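Researcher: Quick test of sequence recovery. Tokens follow.
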């Protein structure tokens, strides 16, 4: 937990297989998206409902008038010049 972020074992496995250095071994190389979507990380997702936007969202953020209430105020208050990468 290097950055204090936890993910499931399925997520770790998916990420590892998607980022395999050997492209011939990379997930999706043999059967495109079907191979990726059949990974255990995606178990329980009804892709037909997802494609037709009939799958309810697990999380819906509440927005205030600014639409910025879900962002860290430290980031929001930065001057534009501070956020430019040289």
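Model:
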């Amino acid at each position: 937990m290097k950055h204090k972020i936890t993910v499931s074992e399925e997520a770790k496995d998916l990420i590892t297989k998607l980022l395999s250095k050997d492209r011939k071994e990379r997930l999706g190389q043999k059967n495109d998206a079907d191979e990726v979507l059949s990974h255990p990380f995606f178990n329980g997702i009804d892709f037909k409902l997802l494609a037709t936007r009939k799958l309810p969202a697990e999380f819906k953020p509440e927005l205030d008038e600014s639409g910025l209430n879900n962002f860290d105020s430290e980031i929001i208050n930065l001057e534009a010049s501070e956020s430019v990468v040289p």
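The helical segments are 9-18, 32-37, 47-51, 73-76.
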